[in-house]
Amino acid sequence: MSSMEASPPARPARPAARSAGPAIAVAAVLVAAVVFVPMALPSLWVKVLTSAAIYAIAASGIALLYARLGLVSLMQVALIGVGGWVTLKMWHATGLPFEIDMLAGALAAGLTGAILGLPALRMRGLYFALITLMAAAAFQIFITATQFPNGGDGWLGVSRNTSVFMDRPALAQTDAAMFRYVVAVAALAFLFLYLNRRGRPGRAWALIRKSEACAMAAGVNVAVYKLWAFALSGFVAGLAGALLAATIGVLDARSFPAADSVMLFALTVVGGAYSFLGQVLTGLLFRAVPALLNDLGVDGDIAFVIFGAALLHALITAPTGIAGQILGGLGRLGRRRDRDH
Protein backbone atom coordinates (compact mmCIF):
# COMPACT_ATOMS: atom_id res chain seq x y z
CA MET A 1 0.00 0.00 0.00
CA SER A 2 2.82 2.39 0.82
CA SER A 3 4.37 1.82 -2.60
CA MET A 4 1.03 2.66 -4.25
CA GLU A 5 0.82 5.91 -2.30
CA ALA A 6 4.35 6.88 -3.30
CA SER A 7 3.83 6.56 -7.06
CA PRO A 8 1.42 9.46 -7.93
CA PRO A 9 3.80 12.39 -7.14
CA ALA A 10 6.14 11.19 -9.90
CA ARG A 11 3.56 11.81 -12.66
CA PRO A 12 3.60 15.65 -12.80
CA ALA A 13 7.29 15.56 -13.70
CA ARG A 14 6.58 14.07 -17.15
CA PRO A 15 5.53 17.32 -18.92
CA ALA A 16 8.64 19.06 -17.64
CA ALA A 17 10.78 16.21 -18.87
CA ARG A 18 9.12 16.39 -22.29
CA SER A 19 9.66 20.16 -22.50
CA ALA A 20 13.29 19.77 -21.51
CA GLY A 21 13.88 17.03 -24.07
CA PRO A 22 14.36 19.26 -27.15
CA ALA A 23 16.70 21.58 -25.27
CA ILE A 24 18.79 18.64 -24.06
CA ALA A 25 18.95 17.19 -27.58
CA VAL A 26 20.08 20.53 -29.04
CA ALA A 27 22.67 20.96 -26.27
CA ALA A 28 24.06 17.47 -26.95
CA VAL A 29 24.41 18.27 -30.67
CA LEU A 30 26.22 21.54 -29.89
CA VAL A 31 28.62 19.84 -27.46
CA ALA A 32 29.41 17.16 -30.03
CA ALA A 33 30.01 19.87 -32.62
CA VAL A 34 32.43 21.71 -30.34
CA VAL A 35 34.42 18.55 -29.72
CA PHE A 36 34.51 17.00 -33.20
CA VAL A 37 33.97 19.79 -35.75
CA PRO A 38 37.50 21.27 -35.45
CA MET A 39 38.89 17.80 -36.12
CA ALA A 40 36.85 17.27 -39.27
CA LEU A 41 36.99 20.69 -40.96
CA PRO A 42 39.88 22.53 -42.63
CA SER A 43 41.43 25.51 -40.90
CA LEU A 44 39.50 28.04 -43.01
CA TRP A 45 36.15 26.70 -41.92
CA VAL A 46 37.23 26.48 -38.29
CA LYS A 47 37.96 30.22 -38.51
CA VAL A 48 34.56 30.86 -40.12
CA LEU A 49 32.78 28.97 -37.33
CA THR A 50 34.83 30.84 -34.73
CA SER A 51 33.62 34.11 -36.22
CA ALA A 52 30.06 32.76 -36.26
CA ALA A 53 30.29 31.91 -32.55
CA ILE A 54 31.58 35.42 -31.81
CA TYR A 55 28.63 37.03 -33.56
CA ALA A 56 26.26 34.62 -31.82
CA ILE A 57 27.42 36.18 -28.54
CA ALA A 58 26.69 39.66 -29.90
CA ALA A 59 23.29 38.53 -31.21
CA SER A 60 22.31 37.37 -27.72
CA GLY A 61 22.42 41.00 -26.61
CA ILE A 62 20.12 42.07 -29.44
CA ALA A 63 17.76 39.21 -28.60
CA LEU A 64 17.67 40.24 -24.94
CA LEU A 65 16.39 43.73 -25.81
CA TYR A 66 14.01 42.58 -28.54
CA ALA A 67 12.49 39.52 -26.85
CA ARG A 68 12.32 40.85 -23.29
CA LEU A 69 11.57 44.55 -23.81
CA GLY A 70 10.39 44.81 -27.40
CA LEU A 71 13.20 47.27 -28.21
CA VAL A 72 14.97 47.41 -31.57
CA SER A 73 18.67 48.22 -31.09
CA LEU A 74 20.73 48.82 -34.24
CA MET A 75 24.05 49.66 -32.60
CA GLN A 76 25.34 46.22 -31.61
CA VAL A 77 28.17 46.10 -34.15
CA ALA A 78 29.36 49.50 -32.88
CA LEU A 79 29.44 48.08 -29.33
CA ILE A 80 31.46 45.13 -30.65
CA GLY A 81 33.92 47.73 -31.93
CA VAL A 82 34.04 49.47 -28.53
CA GLY A 83 34.88 46.19 -26.83
CA GLY A 84 37.56 45.42 -29.40
CA TRP A 85 39.03 48.94 -29.16
CA VAL A 86 39.39 48.84 -25.36
CA THR A 87 40.74 45.28 -25.42
CA LEU A 88 43.44 46.16 -27.96
CA LYS A 89 44.32 49.33 -26.08
CA MET A 90 44.63 47.45 -22.78
CA TRP A 91 46.81 44.77 -24.34
CA HIS A 92 49.19 47.22 -26.02
CA ALA A 93 49.35 49.55 -23.01
CA THR A 94 49.56 47.08 -20.12
CA GLY A 95 50.42 43.60 -21.38
CA LEU A 96 47.94 42.11 -18.93
CA PRO A 97 46.46 38.64 -19.56
CA PHE A 98 43.82 38.55 -22.26
CA GLU A 99 41.02 37.64 -19.86
CA ILE A 100 41.52 40.91 -17.94
CA ASP A 101 41.66 42.90 -21.18
CA MET A 102 38.48 41.16 -22.36
CA LEU A 103 36.67 41.99 -19.13
CA ALA A 104 37.73 45.63 -19.44
CA GLY A 105 36.47 45.77 -23.02
CA ALA A 106 33.16 44.16 -22.04
CA LEU A 107 32.65 46.57 -19.15
CA ALA A 108 33.45 49.56 -21.38
CA ALA A 109 30.95 48.36 -23.99
CA GLY A 110 28.36 47.71 -21.27
CA LEU A 111 28.75 51.25 -19.94
CA THR A 112 28.53 52.64 -23.48
CA GLY A 113 25.42 50.58 -24.14
CA ALA A 114 23.76 51.88 -20.97
CA ILE A 115 24.56 55.50 -21.90
CA LEU A 116 23.32 55.11 -25.46
CA GLY A 117 20.22 53.37 -24.10
CA LEU A 118 19.15 56.44 -22.13
CA PRO A 119 16.77 57.59 -24.92
CA ALA A 120 14.86 54.33 -24.42
CA LEU A 121 13.59 55.76 -21.14
CA ARG A 122 11.51 58.23 -23.14
CA MET A 123 10.87 56.61 -26.51
CA ARG A 124 10.71 53.28 -28.30
CA GLY A 125 9.76 51.86 -31.67
CA LEU A 126 10.99 53.51 -34.85
CA TYR A 127 12.37 56.62 -33.13
CA PHE A 128 14.57 54.64 -30.77
CA ALA A 129 15.75 52.36 -33.60
CA LEU A 130 16.79 55.44 -35.60
CA ILE A 131 18.71 56.85 -32.63
CA THR A 132 20.67 53.63 -32.19
CA LEU A 133 21.37 53.48 -35.91
CA MET A 134 22.72 57.05 -35.82
CA ALA A 135 24.93 56.04 -32.89
CA ALA A 136 26.31 53.17 -34.97
CA ALA A 137 26.97 55.54 -37.87
CA ALA A 138 28.72 58.00 -35.54
CA PHE A 139 30.97 55.22 -34.28
CA GLN A 140 31.79 54.25 -37.87
CA ILE A 141 32.85 57.83 -38.65
CA PHE A 142 34.87 58.12 -35.44
CA ILE A 143 36.72 54.85 -35.83
CA THR A 144 37.45 55.53 -39.51
CA ALA A 145 39.11 58.79 -38.48
CA THR A 146 41.06 57.41 -35.52
CA GLN A 147 41.52 53.68 -36.32
CA PHE A 148 42.08 50.94 -33.76
CA PRO A 149 45.10 50.78 -31.42
CA ASN A 150 47.78 48.71 -33.14
CA GLY A 151 50.92 49.38 -31.15
CA GLY A 152 51.66 52.84 -32.53
CA ASP A 153 52.84 55.87 -30.55
CA GLY A 154 50.69 58.31 -28.61
CA TRP A 155 47.61 57.89 -26.46
CA LEU A 156 45.63 56.23 -29.23
CA GLY A 157 48.50 53.94 -30.14
CA VAL A 158 47.73 54.08 -33.85
CA SER A 159 50.33 53.76 -36.61
CA ARG A 160 49.35 54.04 -40.26
CA ASN A 161 52.29 51.99 -41.50
CA THR A 162 52.81 49.02 -39.20
CA SER A 163 50.72 46.97 -36.77
CA VAL A 164 51.69 44.83 -33.78
CA PHE A 165 49.38 41.84 -33.73
CA MET A 166 47.73 40.97 -30.44
CA ASP A 167 48.65 37.58 -29.02
CA ARG A 168 45.97 34.95 -28.68
CA PRO A 169 44.96 33.77 -25.18
CA ALA A 170 47.30 31.25 -23.60
CA LEU A 171 44.62 28.55 -23.84
CA ALA A 172 43.82 29.25 -27.50
CA GLN A 173 47.02 29.23 -29.53
CA THR A 174 45.72 27.06 -32.40
CA ASP A 175 42.65 27.63 -34.56
CA ALA A 176 40.87 24.62 -33.04
CA ALA A 177 41.70 25.77 -29.51
CA MET A 178 40.51 29.30 -30.33
CA PHE A 179 37.21 27.90 -31.59
CA ARG A 180 36.67 25.97 -28.37
CA TYR A 181 37.75 28.98 -26.29
CA VAL A 182 35.18 31.21 -28.04
CA VAL A 183 32.44 28.60 -27.61
CA ALA A 184 33.28 28.33 -23.89
CA VAL A 185 33.00 32.11 -23.48
CA ALA A 186 29.73 32.02 -25.45
CA ALA A 187 28.36 29.36 -23.10
CA LEU A 188 29.27 31.49 -20.07
CA ALA A 189 27.68 34.57 -21.66
CA PHE A 190 24.50 32.63 -22.43
CA LEU A 191 24.42 31.31 -18.84
CA PHE A 192 24.85 34.84 -17.47
CA LEU A 193 21.96 36.12 -19.58
CA TYR A 194 19.84 33.08 -18.68
CA LEU A 195 20.30 33.73 -14.96
CA ASN A 196 19.20 37.32 -15.46
CA ARG A 197 16.17 36.23 -17.45
CA ARG A 198 15.16 33.72 -14.77
CA GLY A 199 15.80 36.11 -11.88
CA ARG A 200 14.37 39.42 -10.74
CA PRO A 201 15.48 41.35 -13.86
CA GLY A 202 13.60 38.88 -16.07
CA ARG A 203 10.40 39.31 -14.08
CA ALA A 204 10.80 43.08 -14.22
CA TRP A 205 11.39 43.02 -17.99
CA ALA A 206 8.24 40.93 -18.47
CA LEU A 207 6.17 43.51 -16.61
CA ILE A 208 7.77 46.41 -18.47
CA ARG A 209 7.07 44.84 -21.85
CA LYS A 210 3.45 44.23 -20.89
CA SER A 211 2.92 47.75 -19.56
CA GLU A 212 5.31 50.26 -18.06
CA ALA A 213 2.46 51.70 -15.99
CA CYS A 214 1.70 48.27 -14.53
CA ALA A 215 5.39 47.72 -13.84
CA MET A 216 5.67 51.01 -11.95
CA ALA A 217 2.49 50.21 -10.03
CA ALA A 218 4.09 46.88 -9.01
CA GLY A 219 7.12 48.74 -7.66
CA VAL A 220 9.48 48.08 -10.58
CA ASN A 221 12.08 50.77 -11.24
CA VAL A 222 11.60 50.93 -15.00
CA ALA A 223 14.61 53.17 -15.66
CA VAL A 224 17.03 50.93 -13.73
CA TYR A 225 15.92 47.69 -15.35
CA LYS A 226 15.90 49.15 -18.85
CA LEU A 227 19.42 50.49 -18.41
CA TRP A 228 20.49 47.15 -16.93
CA ALA A 229 19.23 45.40 -20.07
CA PHE A 230 21.22 47.79 -22.27
CA ALA A 231 24.30 47.31 -20.09
CA LEU A 232 24.00 43.52 -20.42
CA SER A 233 23.52 43.81 -24.17
CA GLY A 234 26.61 46.00 -24.44
CA PHE A 235 28.58 43.71 -22.12
CA VAL A 236 28.12 40.64 -24.31
CA ALA A 237 28.86 42.74 -27.41
CA GLY A 238 32.10 43.81 -25.73
CA LEU A 239 32.97 40.17 -25.11
CA ALA A 240 32.42 39.52 -28.81
CA GLY A 241 34.67 42.46 -29.75
CA ALA A 242 37.44 41.23 -27.47
CA LEU A 243 37.26 37.73 -28.92
CA LEU A 244 37.27 39.14 -32.44
CA ALA A 245 40.42 41.12 -31.64
CA ALA A 246 42.08 38.01 -30.19
CA THR A 247 41.13 35.86 -33.17
CA ILE A 248 42.39 38.26 -35.84
CA GLY A 249 45.10 40.04 -33.85
CA VAL A 250 44.27 43.48 -35.24
CA LEU A 251 41.00 45.23 -36.10
CA ASP A 252 40.11 47.50 -38.98
CA ALA A 253 37.43 50.20 -39.16
CA ARG A 254 36.02 48.63 -42.34
CA SER A 255 34.85 45.67 -40.27
CA PHE A 256 32.29 47.73 -38.34
CA PRO A 257 29.90 49.45 -40.78
CA ALA A 258 26.57 50.65 -39.42
CA ALA A 259 24.79 48.51 -42.04
CA ASP A 260 26.08 45.37 -40.31
CA SER A 261 24.12 46.33 -37.18
CA VAL A 262 20.93 46.32 -39.23
CA MET A 263 21.83 42.99 -40.79
CA LEU A 264 22.70 41.42 -37.43
CA PHE A 265 19.37 42.53 -35.96
CA ALA A 266 17.44 41.17 -38.95
CA LEU A 267 19.20 37.81 -38.72
CA THR A 268 18.52 37.68 -34.98
CA VAL A 269 14.82 37.82 -35.83
CA VAL A 270 15.28 35.18 -38.54
CA GLY A 271 17.30 32.85 -36.33
CA GLY A 272 15.03 33.34 -33.34
CA ALA A 273 15.26 35.91 -30.56
CA TYR A 274 13.54 33.77 -27.92
CA SER A 275 16.10 31.00 -27.44
CA PHE A 276 19.88 30.71 -27.42
CA LEU A 277 19.66 28.25 -30.30
CA GLY A 278 18.34 31.18 -32.31
CA GLN A 279 21.46 33.21 -31.55
CA VAL A 280 23.66 30.28 -32.61
CA LEU A 281 21.76 30.16 -35.91
CA THR A 282 22.15 33.93 -36.25
CA GLY A 283 25.92 33.62 -36.04
CA LEU A 284 25.91 30.87 -38.66
CA LEU A 285 23.69 32.88 -40.99
CA PHE A 286 25.78 36.02 -40.56
CA ARG A 287 29.17 34.42 -41.17
CA ALA A 288 28.89 30.84 -42.45
CA VAL A 289 26.27 31.29 -45.20
CA PRO A 290 28.23 33.97 -47.16
CA ALA A 291 31.40 31.89 -46.76
CA LEU A 292 29.59 28.80 -48.05
CA LEU A 293 28.28 30.67 -51.08
CA ASN A 294 31.78 31.94 -51.88
CA ASP A 295 33.13 28.42 -51.43
CA LEU A 296 30.58 27.19 -53.98
CA GLY A 297 31.63 29.86 -56.46
CA VAL A 298 28.48 31.96 -55.94
CA ASP A 299 28.66 35.67 -55.19
CA GLY A 300 28.34 36.05 -51.42
CA ASP A 301 26.12 39.11 -51.90
CA ILE A 302 23.34 36.71 -52.93
CA ALA A 303 23.05 36.07 -49.21
CA PHE A 304 21.34 39.47 -48.83
CA VAL A 305 18.53 38.30 -51.11
CA ILE A 306 18.18 35.07 -49.14
CA PHE A 307 18.19 36.93 -45.84
CA GLY A 308 15.55 39.37 -47.05
CA ALA A 309 13.21 36.55 -48.00
CA ALA A 310 13.92 34.79 -44.71
CA LEU A 311 13.12 37.97 -42.75
CA LEU A 312 9.76 38.31 -44.50
CA HIS A 313 9.01 34.67 -43.74
CA ALA A 314 9.91 35.15 -40.08
CA LEU A 315 7.83 38.31 -39.67
CA ILE A 316 4.76 36.87 -41.41
CA THR A 317 4.63 33.19 -40.47
CA ALA A 318 7.38 32.38 -37.94
CA PRO A 319 7.75 35.08 -35.24
CA THR A 320 9.89 32.74 -33.12
CA GLY A 321 12.32 32.27 -36.00
CA ILE A 322 14.04 29.16 -37.27
CA ALA A 323 14.94 28.09 -33.73
CA GLY A 324 11.29 28.23 -32.64
CA GLN A 325 10.31 26.03 -35.57
CA ILE A 326 13.07 23.51 -34.79
CA LEU A 327 12.30 23.34 -31.07
CA GLY A 328 8.56 23.16 -31.77
CA GLY A 329 9.09 20.28 -34.19
CA LEU A 330 11.24 18.40 -31.70
CA GLY A 331 8.62 18.96 -29.02
CA ARG A 332 5.88 17.57 -31.25
CA LEU A 333 7.99 14.51 -32.03
CA GLY A 334 8.57 13.95 -28.33
CA ARG A 335 4.85 14.18 -27.54
CA ARG A 336 4.00 11.83 -30.41
CA ARG A 337 6.56 9.32 -29.13
CA ASP A 338 5.08 9.51 -25.65
CA ARG A 339 1.58 8.88 -27.03
CA ASP A 340 2.82 5.87 -29.00
CA HIS A 341 4.35 4.41 -25.86
Plain-language structure description:
- By secondary structure, the chain is mainly α.
- The chain has a domain at 46-257.
- The protein is 75% helix and 0% strand.
- The protein is built from 14 helices and no strands.
- The protein has helices at residues 2-6, 13-40, 43-69, 76-94, 98-116, 126-146, 175-198, 200-210, 212-217, 222-248, 258-271, 276-295, 302-317, 321-340.
- The longest helix is centred in the N-terminal third of the chain and has 28 residues, at 13-40.
- Residues 1-19 have low confidence and may be disordered.
Q: Tell me, what's the shape?
A: globular
Q: Spans with pLDDT under 50 lasting ≥5 residues?
A: 1-19
Could you give a short account of the major beta sheet? none
Give helix and strand order, one letter per element, not per position: HHHHHHHHHHHHHH
Strand content: under 5%
DSSP helical segment count: 14
List keywords for this structure.
341 residues; single chain; disordered N terminus; mainly alpha
Topology:
Blueprint lengths: L1 H5 L6 H28 L2 H27 L6 H19 L3 H19 L9 H21 L28 H24 L1 H11 L1 H6 L4 H27 L9 H14 L4 H20 L6 H16 L3 H20 L1
Helix pairs in contact: 2-7, 2-14, 3-7, 3-10, 3-11, 3-12, 4-5, 4-6, 4-10, 5-10, 6-11, 7-10, 8-10, 11-12, 11-13, 11-14, 12-14
Short synopsis of the structure:
By secondary structure, this protein is mainly alpha-helical. The protein has helices at residues 2-6, 13-40, 43-69, 76-94, 98-116, 126-146, 175-198, 200-210, 212-217, 222-248, 258-271, 276-295, 302-317, 321-340. The protein has a domain at 46-257.
